[in-house]
Amino acid sequence: MKTFKMTSVAVAALFACAPSVHAACTPEDPDSGDAVTCLATDSDGFKSGKKRLTVTVASGAEVQSDAGKDAIKLQDDDNTIVNIGTIDGDDEAIVGGDGLSVINTGLIRGGDKAIVGENEDDERAANMTILNSVGASIIATGDDAIKGAENLSVTNHGLISAGDKGIQAEDETDTKTRVIVVNSTTGEIRTVDESIEGGDDSVITNLGLITSSEDDALDLGERAVIKNYGTIRNTGGAQDAMDLDSAVITNFAGGLIESLSDGAIDFDESATESRITNHGVIRGLTYGVLVESDPAEGANTAAQIIENAGLIEGGTHALFLGAGEDSYRHQSGATLRGATDFGADNDSFYFEDVLSGVVAGGAVMAGGAGEDVMSFLAYSLADLTDVVKNAGVTSLFFGAGQVNVTGWESFTFADQTVTAGDLTAPMAPVPLPAAGWLVLAGLGALAGMRRFG
């Protein structure tokens, strides 16, 4: 048998000619501000402690990691990653520091998390910006898809999918922080736990789909601003579509806020006023809008101001508003399905248009404790055709229109206001008999004789 011997020079030459799967990203040791390009498959990941790098993973290229490691790790400040290919980490796909920017038109996938903000001091990174393009995917099979701290900004036109949370903003003390998310018409955020979790002053604009299978689709703190043109949904776990402290919510025509397992919108403890403007559908298995009223859980004592020109529906209550001087405006085209309970304090309910049929399918509109006023702005008192009182519930009829109420202290019409005690069925005029008309005529004649005699 023949044997072959290779000199050390020949071995070195052979490996020099072989393609490397370990150093496809060049330069391997960049200076701050350099551009790094990954053109092939890098099987053990790319790591740098420099600032202001721009790392580009080209189309067809792939950056992988060793077992239990991260694919790309850039923990210093203001780095940018442009992914046109694939970034696939056994642990995290990307770890980046403060000011990290990620532009993804390919696939970013992590066995644990996909994108994590973590700086060189191992603290949660702030001011991260993520852009996920049409057709692109950010996937975390084990945990959160995107995790950062204050001012985390995500614009999604593709798919964000997570085995836990989709987008989470919190600092190293686990305090929730501000998050800004725009989910476009092509965007989908699909998660098991919260789809978007953030702290105070968060801003969410949704034109696509945000859905959680076992938790809240949105879980945010105080003063959230939410604009929904698409679908925000919870499908299981006895959780809500939105769990908030306080917010300004606009649900536009075509927008759907829905929980298939609990409430559509749930307000927790807060002393800050919230506002809902609805032209779409707000629907919960139990509640349309629920406000925490149990002091043991931390009651919400603020006002909820609601303008409805769409549908608000709840299997138990369409509106359960708790304490605070709440106000609801039932505008033209609005529908309530389910009872209402306005809770403590002085509340207001406005019907801005004529009633079309039986309001809320005959469910009772309860004012609760306080001096509560229900207004019928399109009717005068004379338009009230009947009042029926039975077992504490008063049914008001305006022709074919009907509303069942309890606990409202006064009722305002276009021409006057009456108290609940004075609200009675209209008295039809009693016709006089013929003899009565003769008596009146005689009295009139006598009056004429006195005047002209």
Question: What does the secondary structure layout of this molecule look like, with pairings?
Answer:
Layout: H1 8-17, E1 25-26, E2 35-38, E3 41-42, E4 46-48, E5 54-57, E6 62-63, E7 72-74, E8 80-83, E9 86-89, E10 94-96, E11 101-104, E12 107-110, E13 115-117, E14 129-132, E15 137-140, E16 146-148, E17 152-156, E18 159-162, E19 167-169, E20 179-183, E21 188-191, E22 196-197, E23 203-206, E24 209-212, E25 218-219, E26 224-228, E27 231-234, E28 242-244, E29 247-251, E30 256-259, E31 265-267, E32 274-278, E33 281-284, E34 287-291, E35 304-308, E36 311-320, E37 327-330, E38 335-341, E39 348-351, E40 364-366, E41 373-376, E42 386-390, E43 393-398, E44 401-406, E45 410-413, E46 417-419, H2 434-452
Parallel strand pairs: 2-5, 3-6, 4-7, 5-8, 6-9, 7-10, 8-11, 9-12, 10-13, 11-14, 12-15, 13-16, 14-17, 15-18, 16-19, 17-20, 18-21, 19-22, 20-23, 21-24, 22-25, 23-26, 24-27, 25-28, 26-29, 27-30, 28-31, 29-32, 30-33, 31-34, 32-35, 33-36, 34-36, 35-37, 36-38, 37-39, 38-40, 39-41, 40-44, 41-45
Antiparallel strand pairs: 1-2, 42-43, 43-44, 45-46
Q: What structural category arises from helix and sheet content? A: mainly beta
SS field, number of helical segments: 2
Q: Major sheet: size, sense and barrel closure?
A: 28 strands, mixed
Give the strand content. 35-45%
Distance between the termini: 158 Å
Walk me through this protein's architecture:
The protein has a domain at 24-199. It is 6% helix and 41% strand. The strands form two sheets. It has a 28-stranded mixed sheet that branches. It has an 18-stranded mixed sheet, with no helix packed on it. The longest helix has 19 residues, at 434-452.
